[in-house]
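Entry 12.
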Amino acid sequence: MATKHVISPAARTLAIIMGGGAGTRLFPLTMDRAKPAVPIGGKYRLVDIPISNCLNSGIRGIYVLTQFNSTSLHRHINASYKFDDFSPSFVEILAAQQTTDGATWYQGTADAVRQNLRTFLESPHDYFIILSGDQLYRMDYRDIIQQHISSGAELTIACIPVNREAAKSFGIMDTDSTQRIIRFSEKPSDSDVLDSLRMKPQLLTGLYGQEQEDLYLASMGIYVFNRQVLADCLDNDSPDFGKHIIPSIIGNRNVEAYIFRGYWEDIGTIRSFFDANLNLCDPHPQYSFYAPGAPIYTQSRFLPASVVEDTMVSRAMISDGCQIHCSRLERCVLGIRSFINQGSTLRNTIVMGADYYESDKGGTPEGMVPIGIGRGCVIEDAIIDKNARIGDGVIITPHDKDANSEGPGYYIRDGIVVIPKNAVIPPGTRI
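Predicted 3D structure (tokens):
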């Protein structure tokens, strides 16, 4: 008798990654790129996180929905994720487009999925997992899919416990003892409402072995839908999942909470981006790009090993192809092709590096500052975006300045100085 081939739940799941937002709170890092294309961890992009989580979870069909400043995101995905002709695996981009059904930009997360629903339903997948392209976390999606199936849920929402203050910035779920969601409140601030949404004692005891006060279930923006349920939920004009679709179906459908207890960070602001990067340098980082058997994938560039000459390094991540000469690095993340010249000191700084070596382009243009950090610079609490040219003797610090301000060649956001991509800071400048 022939053995019946059983298809795993992950193989029956299609992933949809939202990459279309303008990312205004991450400006100026999103001045020329989509938010999921923002570099992180020296050599990766934010979109590598959900794509790698999918691949490591056995999900091999992945769509990325794009809209704003999407050129670099398209280039990165096309260069990074290539599969052979003998497997059904794919990472495919679906850009906002005009069709006979409509000619508008994506109006929200639900509208973005709605505009591409016909494409999604052409596949035979039974489940759809909707993900964000700008979060830092590691999750095996097989766990949430398995809970979704075993609980008989029609929609499962990944949630994470947060404290009372953080709850005011999230969509908060209230569940019964079986983790079925019975109520949803978007960014509650009223004390009485917050009190009523506190996690139930029996749920806290099951998670932590004891009751803990003032914890709330916050939506992570990760959803698992049954195929027909997604189609039914989008049979309207509601633009957003969190604000419109989910509140409207709670009580009418079986909506379950999947409680995630690992590290998760929504990279939504300059401060959260800055802190998440520098945390990677700490002795016991909350997130690591290395996990046995579950790598984070990205573009292979085949760069040479970095050269570090007579430099004091304290808690730094140094990517491939860097050259660092007689400098001092204290809690820094250096991206690919970073150049740090003699006598410079960098503290609490992210240097994103460069897209190319100037020697490959015929050298530094006459009269132009070279790409990288010049001689005798002092930089602290800063983000230096790609291809920036920092002249000799430049001092960059946000101290004694407004937390949100700007000037020639720089922006200060959340108390962090950001030097935008391709900026030129003349020698001797003090920021």
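Annotation: The domain at 10-279 is CATH 3.90.550.10 (Spore Coat Polysaccharide Biosynthesis Protein SpsA; Chain A). The chain is about 20% helix and 30% strand.
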